[in-house]
Specification:
The chain is an alpha+beta fold. It contains 11 helices and 10 strands. It is globular, with a radius of gyration of 21 Å. The chain binds acetoacetyl-coenzyme A.
């Protein structure tokens, strides 16, 4: 057992930290206020390889391992969770299924564009009436000659405002439930496809989250990803990988909240001494630190398992569950240590508190993670 990161992993951390602290930290509030990540930042993410970390070099990516990806996510999230959300969707929810299940032609057509940031992608599983019960979707895809005709809608689709490629799940055999789901690569300009309004969210306000509509949307049959009726498994395996990214994001948010709280506790005085001199505050800091370190090793372990080529369903759900709960608790305590200032938008902890909240919801709620964990331990009950 070796807890020391390799030179290469340390380099990923240093580079990501430097970029995040210099380019994201000072502008994170601006991204929130304008509800978008500016083009120059998206371009830099592409130049640094952060939009194609796990894409093989042959398709224009970096070919990095899952641990490097987790480290980059952690560092970006310390400065700006909106930016890291764009990165995680691109890497795991869009590129991962194409790398794993795409045909050679699909990989050649889409991966180089995605890995460099020329195109952004989005993952469309959730619908107005199906979130946790992913197989409860209503969107259908009917085969007609050499096209599939899609009808239905999707909701809460991250990156949709500027995505050019959508990984879309639809029922090709509605009577078969999760065994009748197929996955399609839908380009934005496909006739019959429209992107709807943006949601006004509590946190990660620099990201876009939109509805999608399919009205007799004719998608070429060659854009079926994987086999017909095998799409649910693609969604599940994609989310297993994605949850490592969200867990790393939660870890980064928790670390940032802790750093702010630690600094503030030493600067601010009350009753004639720094807050940090009070045992009530010391105990809070100790609890926060213990939880962060536990979350860190769950996240790195899940990534390591993936890198070993071993099954990592259990580990990714454990990491996502725990790290997201820790992010919320630590951000909450950081606000508490800041007192009234923690409730004011000028203070970073106020944003971290809001950004932390989504990590317990997207890519599977905490309750769904518990269900997945229990099924891994007990089998399906
Ligand atoms: N990994 C791999 N395979 C899995 C799996 C997992 N985590 N969970 C289930 N499967 C497989 C099962 O083994 C089964 O395979 P077989 O057909 O070969 O036996 C198949 O999938 C069906 O499994 P279930 O019968 O257990 O399926 P279910 O309908 O009961 O649902 C669920 C299972 C775990 C609740 C699933 O619906 C789920 O994961 N829900 C959460 C969905 C989710 O995370 N949504 C997030 C939306 S995307 C998002 O948030 C993106 C964003 O904005 C950034």
């Amino acid at each position: 057992m070796d807890f020391k990161l390799s030179e290469e992993h340390e380099l990923f951390r240093r580079t990501a930290r430097e970029f995040a602290q210099k380019e994201l930290e000072p502008r994170a509030k601006e991204f929130e206020d304008k509800h978008k990540i500016p083009k120059d930042v998206l371009q830099k993410l592409g130049e640094l390889g952060y939009l194609g970390l796990a894409v093989p070099e042959a398709y224009g990516g970096v070919g990095a391992d899952a641990l490097s990806y987790a480290i980059v996510m952690e560092e970006l999230s310390k400065a700006c969770a909106s930016t890291s959300t764009v990165v995680t969707v691109q890497n795991t929810l869009v590129e991962f299924p194409i790398v794993e299940f795409g045909t050679e032609a699909q990989k050649r057509k889409y991966l180089p564009k995605l890995a460099t940031g020329e195109w952004f992608g989005a993952f469309a599983l959730t619908e107005p009436e199906s979130g946790s019960d992913a197989a409860g979707m209503k969107t259908t895809a009917r085969r007609e000659g050499d096209v599939y005709v899609l009808n239905g809608s999707k909701r809460f689709i991250t990156n949709a405002a500027f995505a050019r490629l959508f990984v879309v799940f639809a029922l090709t055999a509605p009577e078969a439930g999760n065994r009748g789901v197929s996955c399609f690569l839908v380009e934005r300009d496909t006739p019959g496809f429209t992107v709807g309004r943006e949601e006004d969210k509590m946190g990660i306000r620099g990201t876009s989250t939109c509805e999608l509509f399919f009205e007799d949307c004719r998608v070429p049959a060659e854009n079926l990803l994987g086999e017909e009726n095998k799409g649910f498994k693609i969604a599940m395996l994609t989310l297993d990988a994605g949850r490592i990214g969200i867990a790393a994001q939660a870890l980064g948010i928790a670390e940032a909240a802790f750093d702010e709280a630690l600094k503030y506790a030493q600067e601010r005085t009350a009753f004639g001494q720094p807050l940090a001199a009070f045992q009530a505050i010391q105990f809070k800091l100790a609890d926060m630190k213990a939880q962060i370190e536990a979350a860190r090793w769950l996240v790195y372990h899940a990534a390591w398992k993936k890198d070993q080529g071993e099954d990592y369903i259990l580990e990714s759900s454990l990491a996502k569950l725990y790290a997201s709960e820790v992010a919320s608790r630590v951000a909450d305590e950081a606000v508490q240590i800041h007192g009234g200032y923690g409730y004011i938008r000028d203070y970073k902890v106020e944003r971290l508190y809001r950004d932390a909240r989504i990590t317990r919801i997207y890519e599977g709620t905490s309750e769904i993670q518990k269900l997945i964990i229990a099924r891994q331990l007990l089998g399906r009950k």
